[in-house]
Amino acid sequence: MFVNIQVQRKMVLLSKLRVIEKYLSEKLISFYISIFAISESVVNPFPLELLLIPSIVKYPHKYIKYAFLAALMSTIGAVFGYILGYYLEEKIIKSFVDVSEFIPIYEKYGALIILIGAITPLPFKIVTVASGVFKINFIFLIIYSFIGRYIRYQIIALLTYYYGSKMINAFQKINNYSNKIKYFLLLICLSLGLCFFIFLR
What is the DSSP letter of 165? Predict the structure, then answer.
């Protein structure tokens, strides 16, 4: 039963990726990547690879351009995520808990946290919003976001350039694994948030 569900999910994802690839227009793909990358760093729950991989499969000669554009736009999105987190802390979060004592910790390890969030399949939007909540150095956010995102997308672009549609299957496996990590980390964050709320309010 579980195997059948996994197969069905894989087939659904493959069909979606192929539909996306079919309707990609070379004139508009840069615009699509830009909007998708910006939104992914703030609220969009879907990974940019859903668009990036089919784009490079269809237009392999532009893999460097697409990777750079994705990294640049994702960094711009990180700025919006930072502003959102800053606003939330100022207007809502500080009414429930004082996060100022955690700011030095985030400042100390913030660069590493941003790099990890930017390179790995973990939700980058959590890192960008948290950076605003804890008021990390804004220049750090921009520099390390771009470095991390460029490394991530350039690796994916290179792999897609050389292996083509095989990357769709690889992405499916990575996406399944990263989803499990996301749920686990979300549970931890909710538990820690509940503890902080109970003991620090």
Answer: T
